[in-house]
């Protein structure tokens, strides 16, 4: 091979015959360089031959793999010599089509049960209307004009009348709302609140005592800042009601809305709270901070506490914060004897504080909260009649995904992951005109992986322009909304490690955009209403089944069509049964089908897909290895990915276990030709530990989890601004401390830097 001083293409396959071995040996003669290189290669060859005869893995690929490295211009291996920064050691390029594990047998014909594709989260097509639920005429008109909302959805038609019923009947209760993603839960809880506040204004308009200084009347808690920002923007539309068309009444109300989510100076948040925010949207950490430290934050008149994405708010890391919040609110509201008598004279004023929990995935954990906090709780489901929580059988609780959502999965050996992802993205954006009409979200497991894939798809197509070590220093920083050099599409990225300003900017930009690919972590999985997302790619499976439901729920919203595809490794096939047990049915797609489409797009015969895919993979690898910064980025992503893999919920550990991973193959999916050795060593030893004593490891893990939970109790150590983010798998966490004290210190500093 030209320029092969640093590159050896590994074409050995399972059935290597003696002849093939002999031919490999003959390659030795062709290897350039001195005796050292030859010795190294001889050693490698010996090992390879040994491996071939003893390898326990099953391989599904053919016995020979032909790759036209030298003849294919697009590979441009010749240029490697000119790249002075290429990692300065011998590189073994293993073929992505050899040594892959066998792909389990699944039926590729349409074998799932015939599904009802009638949209399940669309506005309902009958005579029900918002007016008939008793909502204010001006509010309904305003909603129609500004949000285009005319007919209620299933959950709205069930829940809004119940949330309004206490106005006349004088009965009070807390409410749990569970319905599919994209079914309009936000309006479900906002409309009754806004309706009541408007009517309280009208009821007691002229007594001169109404002003924002009454303090906070409704608190809406969300797990992420983006969701909080989104809720505030919906509220803005609802609250700004133009002069009435129906009556001569004036709706110059005093209702002030706002958020405190961190990301701005605490002093300015304090100042806004002092003036009074009547409907406050916030993230838990920040709210607790203000409840504890902002004396002028008035909550004694609080009437509503909404937990949006309640199950997420009740998860480890949030739960304790939530309990502290509710405890303080109890002290300051229920026990408060200074309730404003004037307001309570209006029939629209709730007799007691109401808690409303909302999510598409509410289960047992909510009942736990219900057990000791909720008052007379009522469960309202999109597909069920309402019931009191005691009557709701836990066993029946299934997570519904929208009927019209087309779900599929692809069993991809680790080495083929990157090219398969490229194939999907390329086929989606194959024609330039599609640039204007397709939005895709790609979920990966950690922030470092988002950064890596963002950079790779942004820049790897122009590798030849980037052969200077310093030429692309700031690429990652500056190119947040630019066109990919691999796919004709804009690329975006979103994760919890970005600054709040950047996050908000990207979130808004992707929302407004007609087209693009967003690489993100689960920070974008919950609640975000990003318009017209056509497809969700779960490149890394979610670590919790609930996240599956929320991730795929970013498409197929409000009756619209949508597609979702899940990548799994051959060893993870059991996960499909887990999905089935939740009545989530996905159709299998063949890797070869996608790779063949890649070949035809590249104007090659579809049977040449191995050549084309290898081309693309080699180009990625060249890009990753051509600059130390890019290599480090890939290594960090690889390490964090493995780390994140270990965080799958315990009930799925038998499917997703680090010890099942082939680390070298995983490295390949990060454009690396071998697994980074430092990380590898850590993981290999942890694999050994796994095998030796899984129980012991679990114990250690649980203890660490508990300790990290304890750290959060310490208010001084808690970083309120970020504890609400899903910032999994930082590279920092891979650099293991050596002593106990260091380990503790590291845990705390990790928390502070997340
Ligand atoms: N009745 C309606 N008619 C038309 N549009 C609606 C209606 N109700 C809500 N919408 C719109 O539907 C979209 C989805 O609503 P929303 O975000 O509240 O869904 P959700 O159920 O909270 O989803 P998720 O579980 O993902 O958070 C929003 O853009 C909202 O404005």
UniProtKB/TrEMBL annotation:
It is an enzyme of class 3 (hydrolase). A motif (Q motif) lies at residues 128-157. Residues 166-380 form the Helicase ATP-binding domain. It catalyses: ATP + H2O = ADP + phosphate + H(+). SMART domains: DEXDc, DUF4217, HELICc. InterPro entries: DEAD/DEAH_box_helicase_dom (IPR011545), Helicase_ATP-bd (IPR014001), Helicase_C-like (IPR001650), P-loop_NTPase (IPR027417), RNA-helicase_DEAD-box_CS (IPR000629), RNA_helicase_DEAD_Q_motif (IPR014014), SPB4-like_CTE (IPR025313). This is ATP-dependent RNA helicase.
């Amino acid at each position: 091979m030209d320029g092969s001083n640093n590159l050896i293409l590994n074409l050995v396959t399972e059935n290597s015959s003696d002849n093939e071995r002999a031919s490999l040996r003959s390659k030795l003669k062709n290897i350039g360089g001195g005796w050292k290189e030859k010795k190294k290669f001889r050693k490698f060859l010996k090992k390879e031959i040994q491996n071939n005869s003893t390898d326990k893995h099953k391989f599904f690929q053919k016995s020979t793999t032909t790759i036209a490295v030298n003849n294919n211009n697009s590979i441009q291996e010749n240029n490697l010599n000119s790249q002075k920064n290429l990692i300065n050691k011998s590189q073994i390029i293993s073929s992505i089509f050899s040594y892959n594990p066998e792909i389990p047998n699944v039926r590729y014909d349409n074998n799932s049960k015939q599904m009802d594709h009638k949209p399940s989260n669309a506005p309902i097509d009958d005579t029900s209307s918002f007016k008939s639920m008793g909502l204010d005429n001006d509010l309904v008109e305003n909603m129609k004009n500004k949000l285009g909302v005319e007919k209620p959805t299933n959950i709205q038609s069930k829940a809004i009348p119940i949330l309004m019923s206490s106005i006349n009947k004088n009965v009070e209760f807390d409410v749990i709302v569970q319905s599919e993603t994209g079914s309009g839960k936000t309006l479900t809880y906002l409309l009754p609140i806004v309706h009541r506040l408007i009517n309280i204004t009208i009821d007691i308009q002229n007594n001169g005592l109404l002003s924002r200084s009454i303090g906070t009347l409704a608190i809406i808690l969300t797990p992420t800042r983006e969701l909080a920002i989104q809720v505030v923007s919906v509220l803005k539309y609802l609250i700004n009601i133009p002069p009435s068309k129906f009556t001569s009444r004036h709706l110059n109300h005093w209702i002030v809305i706002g958020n405190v989510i961190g990301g701005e100076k605490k002093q300015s948040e304090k100042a806004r709270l002092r003036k009074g925010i009547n409907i406050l949207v916030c993230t838990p950490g920040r709210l607790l901070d203000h409840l504890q430290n902002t004396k002028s934050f008035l909550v004694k008149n609080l009437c509503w506490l909404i937990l949006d994405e309640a199950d997420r708010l009740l998860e480890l890391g949030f739960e304790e914060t939530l309990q502290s919040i509710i405890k303080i609110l109890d002290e300051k509201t229920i026990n408060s004897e200074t309730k404003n008598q004037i307001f309570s004279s209006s029939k629209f004023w709730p007799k007691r504080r109401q808690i409303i929990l909302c999510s598409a995935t509410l289960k047992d954990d909510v009942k736990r909260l219900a057990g000791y906090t909720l008052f007379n709780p009522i469960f309202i489901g999109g597909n069920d009649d309402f019931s009191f929580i005691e009557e709701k059988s836990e066993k029946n609780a299934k997570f519904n995904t929208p009927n019209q959502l087309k779900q599929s999965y692809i069993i991809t050996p680790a080495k083929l992951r990157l090219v398969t992802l490229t194939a999907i993205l390329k086929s989606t954006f194959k024609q330039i005109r599609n640039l204007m009409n397709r939005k895709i979200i790609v979920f990966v497991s950690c922030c470092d992986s988002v950064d890596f894939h963002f950079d790779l798809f942004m820049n790897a197509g122009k590798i030849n322009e980037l052969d200077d070590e310093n030429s692309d220093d700031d690429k990652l920083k500056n190119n947040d909304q630019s066109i990919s050099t691999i796919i004709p599409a804009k690329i975006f990225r979103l994760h919890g490690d970005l600054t709040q300003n950047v996050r908000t900017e990207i979130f808004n930009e992707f929302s407004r955009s007609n087209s693009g690919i967003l690489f993100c972590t689960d920070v974008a999985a919950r609640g975000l209403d990003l318009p017209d997302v056509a497809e969700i790619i779960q490149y890394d499976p979610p670590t919790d089944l609930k996240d599956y439901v929320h991730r795929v729920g970013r498409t197929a919203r409000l009756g619209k069509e949508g597609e979702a595809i899940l990548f799994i490794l051959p060893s993870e096939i059991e996960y499909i049964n887990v999905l089935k047990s939740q009545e989530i049915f996905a159709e299998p797609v063949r890797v070869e089908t996608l790779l063949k489409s890649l070949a035809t797009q590249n104007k090659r015969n579809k049977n040449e897909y191995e050549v084309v895919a290898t081309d693309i993979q080699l180009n990625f690898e060249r890009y990753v290895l051509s600059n130390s910064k890019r290599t480090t980025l890939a290594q960090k992503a690889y390490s964090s990915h493995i780390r994140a893999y270990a965080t799958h919920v315990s009930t799925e550990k038998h499917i997703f276990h680090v010890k099942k991973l082939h680390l070298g193959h995983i490295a390949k999916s990060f454009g690396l030709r071998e697994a980074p050795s430092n990380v590898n060593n850590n993981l290999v030893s942890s694999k050994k530990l796994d095998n030796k004593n899984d129980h012991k490891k679990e114990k250690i893990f649980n203890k660490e989890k508990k300790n990290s939970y304890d750290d959060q109790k310490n208010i001084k150590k808690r970083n309120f601004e970020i504890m609400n983010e899903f910032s999994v798998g930082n590279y920092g966490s891979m650099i293991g401390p050596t002593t106990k004290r260091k380990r503790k210190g590291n845990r705390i500093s990790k928390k502070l830097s997340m």
